[in-house]
Amino acid sequence: MTGKTHISIGLMSSAAVLSVNNPTPENIAVGLAVGVLGALMPDIDTSRSKVSYNLRKIVVYAALVIVGAYILMANFYPEVEKTNLFLKNMGVYKLKDYIPYNLKLSNAGLLIIVGCIIFSKFTKHRSFSHSILGLILFTVGVKLLLGNIFIYFAVGFISHMVADTFTNSGIEVFYPIKKKISLKLVHTGSMLDHFTGGLAFIVFLAIILKIK
Question: Does the pLDDT value for residue 116 go beyond 50?
Fold first, then answer.
């Protein structure tokens, strides 16, 4: 599926998890941003991917998601002083609420993530980075680096894997076993692909609007 579709599905999946956890506005903003990152990470194995080829646009999109979530959710939390809320969402202060200050663990997490990215570049598209093994290693790295918000990364990552099993190309879920899992229902870039992305985004908005 296309990068835009994966972003929409990642947002929808992250919002669904957030909705059952009584999130604060800043939790929502951070969770959605990390979820989008997870939803795009599997395609790091191809130079044509959103996360690999057009990183700046992804950063801008993630920033828009954060700002948009702030604007939307601030209206549901009038008791929260908006300037402070904005600063929290931007990570200007109280960063320790989300990212643990443990240099050794953070460095280990970063090394694992970088190692996974490099290894992905030497494997076929939709193999290691679309597998259970890749999911575990990437998620462990993010857990060590970012702490408990890793769950949203994992949810986004899983949403990408599940979505790609519906495509004709399929994915090597059990890598290094080469057999691909494919339901052969969707062509990447097809009308159905775009429809799926649009529908997922609508569901995402519906979930966010219901979070109190």
Answer: yes
